[in-house]
Specification:
254 residues; alpha+beta; 6-stranded mixed β-sheet; 6 helices; 6 strands
Length: 254
């Protein structure tokens, strides 16, 4: 048979399958590229989920603080325009359910039940007094929105300044829409608790982030969830405030 008429050699099925597999297989570089793309997409997805969860926790915390504001407004309406005192250490003995501090005054006034089994349970008060953005340690059992002790005065200071122990008169607060009475707060340096039920207004105004005592905490996306004396809530950029700005928001007007 002439060479031009010779047939190509017949290939077996095994050889055909092997050639097909070689043509369809990924090279090592292609596999590494695919793995790298999957890893990047997974990291982006995790970040997106974390941001969404963080936003949801922040929204819940802000909602809780608004409810604290509503309880404060109701308390003031029921008590002749007075705000609850910060605390009364002379009445902290006996039944913990009757302990005298700001958050418990609100709870008792609204006839809300305690939640924890004992006074030092992590969630002894109703849920609204706690902030779900606190993630790196236990919340203070008295709440995680701290009251400003320069405006929400103790019973002793109310007696000294106003001659009555039952809290500061709401009408005494000039520019109530500009004065913070409570906000997301951290406890003092090295504290077991990662939030605080009160903060040192003057100490923080004077020292800012260097203050070692309980202070406003910008844990809501870098901002501080703040309750004002007119009972509205907003997020404040407390980290960038000057001392004069801190005084303007957190101290009573002269």
């Amino acid at each position: 048979m002439p060479p031009s008429e010779q047939r190509p050699p017949i290939r077996t099925r095994t050889a055909l399958r092997a050639d097909t597999c070689r043509r369809n297989a990924f090279t090592l570089i292609e596999l590494l590229t695919v793995i790298a793309i999957i890893a990047v997409l997974a990291a982006l997805a995790v970040q997106a989920v974390n941001r969404a969860m963080g936003s949801a926790r922040s929204a819940k915390g802000i909602s809780n603080l608004r409810q604290v504001g509503q309880l404060t407004a109701l308390y003031s309406a029921d008590h002749g325009g007075l705000l609850p005192p910060q605390r009364d250490w002379s009445n902290m003995g006996g039944d913990p359910a009757n302990f005298s501090f700001f958050q418990n005054y609100l709870r008792l006034s609204a006839d809300l039940p305690t939640v924890g089994q004992d006074f030092f349970s992590s969630s002894w008060l109703p849920e609204i007094f706690y902030d779900p953005t606190v993630r790196k340690g236990p919340q203070h059992p008295w709440g995680s929105f701290g009251v400003n002790d320069e405006i929400i005065l103790s019973v002793v200071n109310c007696n000294v300044i106003y001659g009555q122990p039952n809290g500061i008169p709401l009408l005494r607060i000039n520019r109530p829409a500009h004065k913070v009475i409570a906000c997301s707060a951290r406890d003092g340096a090295n504290s077991y608790w990662k939030s605080s039920w009160y903060f040192s207004g003057m100490g923080w105004v004077n020292n800012g982030a260097a203050h070692q005592g309980p202070s406003p905490d910008p844990r809501h996306g870098g901002r501080t969830a703040s309750l004002f004396a007119d009972f509205h809530v907003e997020l404040l950029d407390t980290s960038s405030m000057t001392q004069a700005q801190r005084a303007d928001y957190f101290l009573l007007d002269p």
